[in-house]
Amino acid sequence: MRVSRASAGEGASPASVGSAASGLWLGIGLVVVAALALASLLVGARPIAPSVALDAFFAYDASSPAHIIVRDYRLPRTLLAVLCGAAFGVSGALIQAATRNPLADPGILGVNAGAAFFVTVAVGLLGWQSIDAYLWAAFLGAVVVTLTVYALGASGRDGATPLRLVLSGVALSAVLGGIGSAMTLIDPKAFDALRMWSIGSVAGRDMHIVATVAPFIALGLAIALVAAHPLNAVALGDSLARALGADVLRARILVVIAVTLLAGAGTAAAGPIGFVGLMVPHAVRWLAGPDQRRILPLTMVFGPVLLLIADMIGRLALHPDEIEAGIVTAFLGAPILILLARRTGARGL
Question: How far, in Å, CA of 39 to CA of 347, rounded?
Answer without folding.
Answer: 33
